[in-house]
């Protein structure tokens, strides 16, 4: 390989990495909001809704994301919904990882001692106030590392979009690898790009975690 | 929708599913134990060990399992190390998920207020006993749901083994799809099988959650 | 407030009309849709050199991709009025069955089991299967493959699996997702022989000729690769099939022959008399 080819391959991978970052951020945002809603429903919601949320969590987590993506992207036209690919990926990926995030949030919220609720109520705090000021900050401590796990898995799962006509980092690497029939160096380069993306995300997580540590 | 050919190919799918379960059991055991080691390193009193633990977690968690499995399977033979495809897959999944599960254990342990440990020591417990009797039981309960998450992710990650020619469920389904050109029927069936395996594992963890609830008092 | 409500109502009406139009559109041939759209959408591969891949300049090209452009030229009069929908092997059939793509050209072999659910035109190329082994290997002929010590690698397709079972039942057969992984298996010693589509095998040996050789003869029958589409749309199928015939054996044979020569370095099969077509 000449150096010009290496440069152009690196640029090509960098373009793929940008797509990966964009899709990942979208998916993580949807997963966080929807996951919190699901966790709240399961813990404090009206019981039938809570059971529904639990059932959703079981099914969404149990089915491979590839199947969900292919199933939804190629079936939506039948329902008259022709959404652009990135939107389908962000929504379906987000709702899928919401099921995982919900488990993390649920575990963390349930671990906050009930006495904290009692104490807050005794101080005359409203439920919402109590939740946001007292409970949530404590739950965050337990939820952050496993939430980071989910986020990193989400980043790496964006590679599945190539099955439905999407293009991102792994697809770019595979294209370079198949062109040269040398897949291993291409994949190692892909891994290096992933490392940069995921390491940045986990450093942000670590930083937040340090701020919340017990002193 | 026509599921006739699926029934005709049921043995192929069932063999694949059995291999998926075998891979998952291997990786679950490896990662559950490996995660303990990783958490131990990450929370060690010795800075070099903490560094090793942190470095391991960052490398394993921040690179794709696909690449890790390729390096183990295709790269190691050039160094004279020969492992079967099955062993390579189980090892790769165990290593990566040790990092994830180690972080989950650590979060659980660190979420328990340090005063509890101090109180146990003040009562005359040795540090090991305090960990075993006071800290671990509480931490394990708290981490059951995220642990369940990771177990289910492991089950679905076993599909990566198909890239190194392990005849598991995804490989069987790809063959069936290629032969029949019936994507919807094939994918629906495969999704149901994965769901059944995941539900089995999720069910066991749910039982554990009921048996050992997080004490909120 | 009222303004917003009326806008919402307008949106709902538009949505309902859209749904209604979709029902109507389902009844007209996709051929009319293509002509009205003035552009074709074709499902192709970007990881199957030399059929569909991204070249050194980042251009999506290859024999099949350029043939897709020839199809666009015939259908809407311009080889560039084309949208390439790149999918992996998993997504190529859903892409046409769902209507996201008009048709697909993606190294699909006509296979009897597939013909039940997918419509194929006549083939645009034959593909044969070659076997690659390391130089100095014990395997000297195709007959040597049927031996307990042989590990025969290939991609995970029905045709490859069936061939391995038929011609090397004693050998251990292993199946990978992509040709490059199967090639890597041969290089790293994970397999001792690799059965591959002639184009991929020739390309690999062309680049690794000092280490690997192609065995004489081809393994099994010749297969036909064809354009695939959603079944049940006769006007579209007839148009595609007619155009393919015109390229491979009719008035546009010259363009097809030039394309073939560019990618495979040799002349395509000669034009045949109509009664042997």
Taking pLDDT < 50 over at least 5 consecutive residues as the criterion, the unreliable ranges of chain B are: none
Q: Please report which band the strand proportion of chain B falls in: under 5%, 5-15%, 15-25%, 25-35%, 35-45% or over 45%.
A: under 5%
> Could you tell me the radius of gyration of chain B in angstroms?
21 Å
Summarize the largest interface: chains and residue counts.
Answer: A-B, 53 and 52 residues
The helicity of chain C comes to: 40-55%
Largest sheet of chain C: 5 strands, mixed
Mean pLDDT of chain C: 89
The helix content of chain B is over 70%
Number of strands of chain C: 13
Per DSSP, the total helix count of chain B is 9
State the main characteristics.
A: 215 residues; mainly alpha; B: mainly alpha; flat
Report on this model:
Chain A is mainly α. Chain A is 82% helix and 0% strand. Chain A contains 8 helices and no strands. In chain A, helix 1 crosses helix 4, helix 1 packs antiparallel against helix 7 and helix 3 crosses helix 4. Chain B has 217 residues and is mostly helical. Chain B is built from 9 helices and no strands. The radius of gyration of chain B is 21 Å and the shape is flat. Chain C is α/β, with parallel strands linked by helices and 277 residues long. In chain C, helix 6 links the parallel strand 9 and strand 10. The chains are: A mainly alpha (215), B mainly alpha (217), C alpha/beta (277). At the A-B interface, helix 2, helix 3, helix 4, helix 6 and helix 8 of A face helix 3, helix 4, helix 5, helix 7 and helix 9 of B.
Compact summary:
Chain C: Keywords: Signal, Transport. Chain A has helices at residues 3-44, 47-62, 65-75, 85-110, 114-122, 127-157, 169-180, 183-211.
How is the topology of this model organized?
The complex is a heterotrimer of chains A (215), B (217) and C (277).
Chain A: H1 3-44, H2 47-62, H3 65-75, H4 85-110, H5 114-122, H6 127-157, H7 169-180, H8 183-211
Helix pairs in contact in A: 1-2, 1-4, 1-6, 1-7, 1-8, 2-4, 3-4, 4-6, 5-6, 6-8, 7-8
Chain B: H1 4-8, H2 10-42, H3 47-62, H4 65-75, H5 85-110, H6 114-122, H7 127-157, H8 169-180, H9 183-211
Helix pairs in contact in B: 2-3, 2-5, 2-8, 3-5, 4-5, 5-7, 6-7, 7-9, 8-9
Chain C: H1 2-27, H2 30-37, E1 40-44, E2 47-48, E3 52-54, E4 60-61, H3 63-76, E5 82-86, H4 89-97, E6 103-104, H5 112-115, E7 119-127, E8 129-134, E9 151-155, H6 158-167, E10 172-176, H7 179-187, E11 193-197, H8 198-207, E12 212-214, E13 223-229, H9 234-249, H10 253-264
Parallel strand pairs in C: 1-5, 1-6, 9-10, 9-11
Antiparallel strand pairs in C: 2-3, 3-4, 7-13, 8-11, 8-12
Helix pairs in contact in C: 3-10, 9-10
């Amino acid at each position: 390989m000449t150096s010009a080819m290496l440069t152009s391959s690196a640029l090509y991978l960098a373009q793929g990495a940008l797509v990966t970052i964009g899709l990942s951020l979208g998916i993580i945002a949807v997963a966080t909001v929807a996951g919190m809603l699901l966790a709240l429903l399961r813990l404090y919601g009206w019981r039938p809704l809570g059971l529904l949320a639990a059932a959703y969590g079981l099914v969404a987590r149990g089915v491979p994301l590839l199947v969900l993506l292919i199933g939804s992207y190629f079936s939506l036209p039948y329902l008259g919904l022709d959404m652009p690919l990135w939107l389908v990926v962000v929504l379906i990926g987000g709702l899928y990882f919401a099921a995982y995030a919900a488990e993390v949030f649920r575990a963390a919220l349930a671990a906050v001692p009930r006495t904290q609720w009692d104490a807050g109520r005794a101080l005359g705090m409203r439920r919402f106030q109590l939740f946001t000021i007292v409970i949530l900050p404590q739950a965050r401590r337990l939820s952050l590392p496993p939430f980071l796990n989910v986020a990193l898995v989400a980043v790496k799962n964006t590679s599945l979009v190539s099955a439905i006509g999407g293009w991102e980092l792994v697809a770019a690497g595979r294209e370079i690898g198949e062109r040269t029939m040398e897949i291993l160096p291409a994949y190692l380069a892909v891994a290096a790009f992933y490392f940069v993306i995921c390491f940045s995300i986990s450093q942000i997580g670590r930083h937040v975690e340090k701020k919340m540590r017990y002193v | 929708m026509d599921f006739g050919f699926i029934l005709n190919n049921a043995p192929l799918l069932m063999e694949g599913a059995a291999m998926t379960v075998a891979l998952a059991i291997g990786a679950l055991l490896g990662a559950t134990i490996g995660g303990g080691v990783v958490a131990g390193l990450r929370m060690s009193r010795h800075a070099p060990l903490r560094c090793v633990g942190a470095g391991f977690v960052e490398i394993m968690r921040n690179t794709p399992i696909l690449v890790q499995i390729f390096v183990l399977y295709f790269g190691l033979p050039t160094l004279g190390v020969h492992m079967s495809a099955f062993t390579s897959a189980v090892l790769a999944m165990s290593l990566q998920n040790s990092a994830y599960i180690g972080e989950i254990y650590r979060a659980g342990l660190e979420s328990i207020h340090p005063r509890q440990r101090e109180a146990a020591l003040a009562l005359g417990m040795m540090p090991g006993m305090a960990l075993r009797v006071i800290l671990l039981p509480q931490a394990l309960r708290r981490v059951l749901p995220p642990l369940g998450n990771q177990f289910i992710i492991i089950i679905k990650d076993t599909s990566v083994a198909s890239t190194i020619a392990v005849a598991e469920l995804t490989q069987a389904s790809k063959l069936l799809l290629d032969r029949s050109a019936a994507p919807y029927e094939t994918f629906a069936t495969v999704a149901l099988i994965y769901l059944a395996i995941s539900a089995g594992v999720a069910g066991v963890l749910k039982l554990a959650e009921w048996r050992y609830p997080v004490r909120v008092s | 407030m009222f303004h917003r409500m009326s806008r919402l109502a307008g949106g709902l009406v538009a949505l309902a009309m859209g749904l209604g139009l979709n029902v109507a559109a389902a009844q007209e041939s996709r051929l009319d849709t293509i002509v009205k759209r003035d552009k074709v959408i074709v499902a192709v591969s970007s990881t199957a050199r030399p059929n569909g891949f991204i070249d050194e300049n980042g251009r999506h090209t290859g024999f099949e991709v350029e043939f897709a452009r020839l199809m666009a030229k015939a259908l809407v009069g311009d080889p560039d009025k084309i949208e390439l929908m790149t999918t992996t092997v998993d997504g190529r059939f859903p892409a046409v069955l769902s209507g996201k793509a008009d048709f697909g050209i993606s190294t699909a072999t006509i296979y009897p089991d597939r013909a039940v659910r997918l419509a194929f035109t006549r083939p645009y190329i034959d593909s044969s299967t070659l076997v690659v082994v390391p130089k100095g290997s014990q395997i000297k002929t195709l007959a040597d493959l049927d031996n307990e010590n042989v590990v025969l690698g290939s991609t995970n397709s029905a045709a490859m699996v069936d061939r391995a079972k038929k011609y090397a039942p004693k050998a251990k057969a292993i199946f990978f997702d992509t040709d490059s992984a199967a090639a890597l298996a041969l290089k790293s010693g994970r397999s001792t022989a690799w059965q591959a589509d002639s184009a991929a095998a020739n390309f690999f040996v062309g680049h690794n000729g000092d280490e690997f050789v192609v065995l004489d003869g081809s393994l099994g029958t010749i297969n036909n690769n064809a354009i695939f589409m959603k079944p049940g749309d006769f006007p579209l199928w007839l148009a595609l099939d007619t155009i393919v015939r015109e390229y491979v054996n009719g008035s546009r044979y010259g363009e097809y022959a030039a394309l073939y020569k560019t990618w495979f370095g040799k002349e395509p099969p000669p034009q045949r008399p109509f009664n042997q077509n």
